């Protein structure tokens, strides 16, 4: 069992080889709420138990998304304001912005896309198999399916979807040497989402689409945002949020899901032997629990408070580690076992409820289920053809590359 005093969750290197589940288990058992100093910051509270995480997220009056934003960075108020997206807001403004597109992501609205997701998935699999027995699963399948689908919903031309993925990788992977960009010596970059200059490229991409929709409105999200009463800054950060969230989290879950199935072949065999819509739905939830795509979010205490017996001071950073909550032994039976039949599965991969529960959760679960529903019958064998390369990040549980070798059925 690791010594909790030596656990530093601000260290991205801790997450490179694998998620440090043993460290989170130690924190849950020994502390629950852990004070984590930072070499280049003020330090933060790490909330690691399921019920405590729920308490934080269901009390935005005490634990604000808006005061300091949702990243670990210590930002000046003007920087927080200039990069503030919907996830960095408290009600009521959060509710207004979410309400602009909420109807597109209800269970009924998402179900309309099921046949198209199946069609896209089979076309993507065809294209991947055409490359030969070996290919990168991330590039050819797990990033392609969600981005092709979401490009239609968002209003991005399919010919430009890879540009969204590439900018998103540099934007969200800015702690990884492969994607990190040079930043100015001054603080000018800190007003940008993720403090990344790549945000400027995403802004420009979104503005080009907005100009096109002003000339020719369509039934897509870009048109809705153009017709809403948004400032340029609100449009820019809204587009960044949608363009990245609509692809990155689902893509990483699909990638981790294959990794889990390869490590647990009896689970893959069960899916082959007893395929059913219900089983693929429970499989999707288990993949989300098992490979929580976003490790944590940050809140800021608005007042002095007490959380699970720990005194929290006004202004303290409070981080909620979904990746730990999803392995909490007090909530999940045998949490270290990957079980595609797990029901109920009250995972918090999309958040533990409250106003910031993930808008695209129904779409993501449908896409994950359909990818494997369509993929598994089409492969006689599938195995890793090289090492899985992980993203260096304590925020995103990302897989950059996953080479596979496939024998079609």
UniProtKB/TrEMBL annotation:
One of its GO terms (biological process) is cholesterol catabolic process. GO terms for molecular function: cholest-4-en-3-one 26-monooxygenase activity; heme binding; iron ion binding; steroid hydroxylase activity. SUPFAM superfamilies: Cytochrome P450 (SSF48264). Pfam families: p450. CDD domains: CYP142-like (cd11033). The keyword Metal-binding applies. Belongs to the cytochrome P450 family. PANTHER family: BIOTIN BIOSYNTHESIS CYTOCHROME P450 (PTHR46696:SF4), P450, PUTATIVE (EUROFUNG)-RELATED (PTHR46696). This is Cytochrome P450. It comes from Conexibacter arvalis.
